[in-house]
Amino acid sequence: MIALGIDTSCDDTGVGVVRDGEVLANVVASQTELHAEFGGVVPEYASREHTRVIDGLVERALDEAGIPARALDLVAATYGPGLVGPLLVGLSYAKGLALGLGVPFYGIHHLEAHLAAARAGAGGLEPPYLALLASGGHTHLFDVPREGDYRLLGATRDDAAGEAFDKVARLLGLGYPGGPRIAKLAEQGDDRAVPFPLPLKGQEGFDFSFSGLKTAAARFLEKGYRKEDLAASFERAVVESLVQTAVRAARKLGRDRVVVAGGVAANARLRRRFAETGLELFLPPPELATDNGAMVALAALERVRRGEPPSPWTIEARPYAPLAEASHALDVE
Ligand code: KG4
Ligand code: ZN
């Protein structure tokens, strides 16, 4: 089966073509430059830019995949969560394309797509395992005892992990998106030089909290710490929080495998650190970690494999789509 997937949940237009589990094409048009001068994503500009590029991007993806549109068996798009205008562009385009081709349409929950990307490289990954999702908008830790049974163990109480990277990068004058820029600067810094506290140290549960690190970073910057050291020490604090919480959960529940997904899964320190824990690790390839269209196609193909029906044509963009909606695949207790 060949699926075309579209993600326009935020400021990247992503279009991917996937045959069964194999990614044939995955093109992403970034709007980073467009929003740079505003220090954040301007939703109306994002919508317009998605509208401007989406048709050409779909053509390019089909071209790279080496297949004509009529070879597609289904079309999928993210319906939420995300920015409503941008979501509407991708969703409407995808529905129109599916209708025009006479193929089924699947509306996909953004987090379901991130998880599908992480599972994609893991050939036959079977539950039980833990799943950690860390992106610009989410930080969630799930236990997955059975296929399709997602139990929320903990989540961030304030900022998402990626959001913390973005905010601290802004503080350091690095621009957006912050994650890769902090990671780069951190390479030249001492990760023990700045005494960031470990968030929620000593807690019993599995929640996260990153806004304190952001406040601490502002204070340390005023005190005159080097930016390189700040970046390295901050990155270490975020990574330790994510890894140590996941390891604690794994011990408590007797799990020995963990799937890590979302933009922050692209972080090299996080990947290295997880590799040291002895847990068996499943990560998306870096190009499938941040937002893209292939992960949406992968999630749709997983749905087909589970025998789930296509979405109704009336499915709407849902900016705050709750996790429990991510088909039964993300059924949260
Ligand atoms: O999943 P994603 O592309 O979009 C959302 O759904 O939010 O994640 C984007 C987030 C941004 O906050 C970005 O700073 C972060 O992922 N990110 C990283 C890295 N690459 C992207 N954070 C840390 N290290 C990275 N290498
Ligand atoms: Zn995302």
In short:
The protein is α/β, with parallel strands linked by helices and 333 residues long.
Explained architecture:
Helices cover 42% and strands 19% of the residues. It is α/β, with parallel strands linked by helices. A five-stranded mixed β-sheet has the order 3-2-1-4-5, sandwiched between helices. It folds into two domains: 2-114 and 288-326, Nucleotidyltransferase, domain 5, CATH 3.30.420.40; 126-282, ATPase, nucleotide binding domain (Nucleotidyltransferase, domain 5). The model is unreliable at 327-333 (pLDDT under 50). It binds 5'-O-[(R)-(carboxyoxy)(hydroxy)phosphoryl]adenosine and zinc ion. Residues 10, 135-137, 162-163, 165-166, 177-180, 183, 262-264, 266-267, 290-291 line the site of 5'-O-[(R)-(carboxyoxy)(hydroxy)phosphoryl]adenosine (KG4). Zinc ion (ZN) binds at residues 110, 114, 135, 262-263, 291.
